[in-house]
Amino acid sequence: RKEVEQDPGPFNVPEGATVAFNCTYSNSASQSFFWYRQDCRKEPKLLMSVYSSGNEDGRFTAQLNRASQYISLLIRDSKLSDSATYLCVVSSSGGSYIPTFGRGTSLIVHP
Amino acid sequence: DAGVTQSPTHLIKTRGQQVTLRCSPKSGHDTVSWYQQALGQGPQFIFQYYEEEERQRGNFPDRFSGHQFPNYSSELNVNALLLGDSALYLCASSPRGGNPYEQYFGPGTRLTVT
Question: Above 60 in pLDDT, residue A94?
Answer without folding.
Answer: no
